[in-house]
Amino acid sequence: MKIPFVYNLRSIGQRPVSTAMTALGVSLVVAVFVAMLALANGFRAALVKTGSPGNVIVLRRGAASEMESGISRESERLIAADPRIATGAAGRPLVSPEVFVVINIPRAVGEGVNNVVARGVNDEAFAVRNIHIVAGRKFESGRSEIIIGKKIVPRFAHTAIGDTLRFATRDWLVVGHFEAGGSALESEVWGENEQFMPVFRGEVFQSVILRLTDPAAFDDLKRALEGDQRLTVQAQRESAFYAGQSTVLTRILTFLAVMITSVMAVGAVFGAVNTMYAAVSSRTPEIAVLLTLGFPPRSVLASFLAESAAIAFLGGVAGGLLALPINGIVTSTTNWNSFSEVAFAFRVTPGLLVGGVIFAVVMGVVGGFFPAWRAARLQVVQALR
Amino acid sequence: MALVELRNVHKSFQRDTQVIEVFENLTLDVAERSFTALMGPSGSGKSTLLNLIAGLDRPTSGTITVAGAKVNAMPPTALAAWRARHIGFVFQSYNLLPVLTAFQNVELPLLLAPLSRKQRDERVRIALGVVGLDDRLQHYPRQLSGGQEQRVAIARAIVSDPTLILLDEPTGQLDKRAAEEVLALLQRLNSELHKTIIIVTHDAHAAEKAKQVLHLEKGVLAA
Ligand SMILES: Nc1ncnc2c1ncn2[C@@H]1O[C@H](COP(=O)(O)OP(=O)(O)O)[C@@H](O)[C@H]1O
Ligand SMILES: [Mg+2]
User: Fold this and answer.
1) How many CA atoms lie within 13 A of A162 on its CB side?
2) Which residue's alpha carbon is at the smallest distance from atom 9 of ligand 1?
């Protein structure tokens, strides 16, 4: 029943210029679409990576973020005593009571300051969060020393080893740079919790991060901590917590991607409409012949839809190729959940590329519909006059 | 019963406010295995008559029966399938899809029949053999002469072995020699392969090749 596709392919080849123009329009839309979603994707991935499923983050009950949370020293001691917590090399429980604040530090380039997370941790934090020093050394206990996440080193001033960074009315000596598997922690400034506590928010931690011996024990631990009358805390898997911390910006980025590419898509669809109307009217005698031979109108409709979809498919593939080089490029943004700077890499995934091509084909089908409809409804007798 | 029967056919076209009466009361029988030439001045309704028989157009009133099927009463989808099965049609020009080879053009009607690739291949070769172009299978229309193009179109019209072959001025754009070849081919299709053929032509010499000549004048038929 089908009109052979080779008929459409060769017809496309007969008008390379208009085909290329139409495909180009589609490719630009797809490139922007893929790039914007790669941005959202990269941001989300950086935050999701920050959390490990074997780790638990404990916050004050009702706190949506670390910023809103507070946990006293007594509570921290009760939490750290839980038997489900894994033990580190030194025989101490893998628990990191942390101080979390947002500070302003000057940018490397240009004027102005930016929000950055400053996190006060203990020695166990390096094992709990899987942190590696890539240059210099760890801060020493009892000293006014800090280490800087490697993603923000190039983005801010006074972050080189040996530099002094001033915040919270004190000078802090930069002694090292660290990496954290590409996660959002690489956009943070770390020091000792006991040093950060007095200069920031007083005798209180913001969160307690702990490593479970068995990740499956999470539900038991959660029940124990949240049921303890002496505590008013909530426990979440760290991975779920950080995924949640990405939702506001991810939603905004995705919404923007859809908005902007929808507007652009209208233009590309009109391009396809034009091209296909021109194709249909210049091939009126051919359509008349096909209908005379007994091909039903729906075959003619399908044939021209396929032709339009094929052009758009070419555009979709080109758009994906166009967007591909941004994969891995590091950029940064303010995380709207914590209002601090997070640096991350664009992430073009195979799924995103497939999505872009599907989007392209949809544009082609939408743009080809009315022209194809006109072709299918052609009256042979009129067409031949 | 004749293969093609037109009874009291009335056909008019409405153009803006003007009504053009093409046939007011046309009756016609075409016998099976006949070879009929339809002549008449331009505008006399020759093309309209072929279109009605092929189910490409509908009469304003009256009945058209082809091989027992009431063509004027068939719903559009049934009509398309019926035409694929029973009618081979050749136009004056633009018969072939320019981006397809002679082989692919001739194969088109067979795509509408339940045939395997091998069966199609065989039939296309036979049809192109009948019109003397089995050495031009992979040629595109622009690589063929006008006469060869029309012969490919005739091969396509016969490839699915239709009940009736209709040709609307098939030699109108051909030089004398090419026209001769096409007419000789049609004669052979009728006498050797017993195809029923109706051809519209301006050319009295061409009409001589037919077994029967009908003259159409202002919508009225005369032998
Ligand atoms: N689709 C149409 N709409 C309006 N008028 C038409 C249409 N088709 C044919 N006619 C008119 O009907 C008459 C017969 O046309 P046609 O059958 O093409 O004649 P012929 O093929 O003998 O030259 C002419 O007057 C023509 O203008
Ligand atoms: Mg005519």
Assistant:
1) 0
2) B48
What domains lie within chain B, and their CATH numbers?
A: 2-222 (3.40.50.300)
Average of pLDDT values for A27-43? 93
Smallest CA–CA separation between A357 and chain B, in Å? Answer: 27
Q: What is the pLDDT of residues B167-184, one digit of tens each?
A: 999 998 899 999 999 999
Helix or strand or coil: residue B146?
helix
Q: What does the pLDDT look like over A104-144, one tens digit per residue?
A: 999 888 778 889 999 999 999 999 998 999 999 999 999 99
**Alpha carbon distance B15, A62 (integer Å):** 78
Q: What is the pLDDT of residues A298-350, one digit of tens each?
A: 999 999 999 999 999 999 999 999 999 999 888 877 777 767 777 888 999 99
Q: Whose CA is nearest to atom 20 of ligand 1?
A: B43
What does DSSP say about strands A145-149 and A170-179: parallel, antiparallel, or unpaired? parallel
pLDDT of residue A1: 58
Which two three-digit tokens encode residue A111?
């004027």
By DSSP bridging, strand A233-237 and strand A55-60 are antiparallel
Q: Which residues sit opposite A234 in a β-bridge? A: A59
B14 lines ligand 1 (CB under 6 A): no
Which residue owns the Cα nearest ligand 1 atom 3?
A: B13
Reference B46, options B190, B154, B150, B172; nearest CA is: B172
Cβ contact, residue pair B94, A285, below 8 Å: yes
Instruction: For residue A376, give every residue at least 6 positions away whose Cβ sits within 8 Å of its Cβ, in sequence order, or none.
Output: A297, A298, A300, A301, A304
**DSSP symbol at A4:** P
The pLDDT value given to residue B126? 96
Q: For A378, name the nearest residue in chain B, comparing CA atoms only.
A: B56
Inter-CA distances, B191 with B167, B194, B197, Å: 17, 5, 11
Residue A184's identity, in one-letter code, is: A
CB atoms A289 and B57 under 8 Å: no
Ligand 2 geometric centre to CA of B80 (Å): 22
Confidence (pLDDT) at B221: 86
- A133-142 confidence digits (pLDDT tens): 999 999 999 9
Chain A residues near residue B51 by CB distance under 8 angstroms = 380-381
Distance of CA A54 to CAs A60, A211, A238, A247, B174, Å? 20, 6, 8, 21, 84
Nearest Cα to Cα of residue B108 among B124, B130, B93, B122: B124
Which of B81, B94, B96 is opposite residue A294, by nearest beta carbon?
B81
Q: Shortest Cα distance from A283 to chain B (angstroms)?
A: 9
Ion ligand 2 neighbours, Cβ < 5 Å: B 47
pTM score: 0.81
How many Cβ pairs within 8 Å bridge chains A and B? Answer: 71
> φ and ψ at A293, to 5 degrees?
-65, -15
Direct distance between the N- and C-terminal alpha carbons of chain B, in angstroms, rounded to an integer = 20
Q: Do B100 and A10 touch (CB under 8 A)?
A: yes
Chain A partners of B84 at a C-beta cutoff of 8 Å? Answer: 293-295
Residue A302 token pair: 């399908």
pLDDT at B189: 93
Task: Using the atom order of ligand 1, give the atom closest to the CA of residue B216.
Answer: 22
